[in-house]
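I hope you will forgive my troubling you with a question about protein structure. I should value your view on which stretches of the chain appear to form regular backbone elements. Here, with my thanks, is the record as I have it:
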Amino acid sequence: MEHRIKELRAALGLTQEQLSERVGVSRQTIISIENGRYNPSLELAYKIAKVFDRYIEDVFIFDKGSE
């Protein structure tokens, strides 16, 4: 799954730590998501999208081939 987290986070001037605090996870979780090592749950994806005031589909690009 691809995403735009790093790009959107930078546009808001948020650090990984600040984003992690806003969504209630560790900084390591944000790092793992940004590096493609971890796919967030639907609940976490929603929380991240909400921080950016975006729809989940605007933040996460789901690969239809992996369904």
About this structure: The beta strands are 2-3, 60-61. The first helix runs from residue 5 to 12. The chain has one domain: 2-66. Residues 2-66 form a domain with the 434 Repressor (Amino-terminal Domain) fold (CATH 1.10.260.40).
